[in-house]
């Protein structure tokens, strides 16, 4: 679908992508202006739609693009040979902190996409988010040494409790961000709260 755009030289691709990420992250989907995007990118509006078809397709392309970059970097850094569940999850948290510093614009765009209420893109973004979450939770549990968990516990139920807790934690933070004029998320505070839960879960569920 995006072959015409992907055949452009890298410098031109980057100009268009950076301009679009900046506009959508700053204003959200409905208020974002394709006029501002093409002005910043130094191309015509006709060319933008030649590459992406319409504003909606551009937004969804950017979501996939930003996620793929972050996911690629994440899985290059995480040690999936680590068998302790909570050590691996802590490792994932620290890598995310590092990536937030390295790719602030990409994370800002993804945050806005997660918070997006526009009916033009919400259903598709929600579907993408669910699929990505399911895939990532599967990878998070690969190779884990479940013998460390208490024998009198149902592991599947324990993992559901842990998963639901952090899903709820994320939902609460995104709900707060929606009410904030800047949509700011204090990730350091979130990660500290996550660490508190790690300590509780370790005491409750490990032998």
UniProtKB/TrEMBL annotation:
Keyword DNA-binding: yes
DNA-binding region: 33-52
One example GO MF annotation: DNA binding
GO biological process: regulation of DNA-templated transcription
Residue ranges of every copy of the HTH tetR-type domain listed in the record: 10-70
Classification via Pfam families: TetR_N
Keywords, alphabetical: DNA-binding
Matches recorded under InterPro entries: DNA-bd_HTH_TetR-type_CS, Homeodomain-like_sf, HTH-type_TetR-like_transc_reg, HTH_TetR, Tet_transcr_reg_TetR-rel_C_sf
UniProt entry tagged with the keyword tRNA processing: no
Protein name: TetR family transcriptional regulator
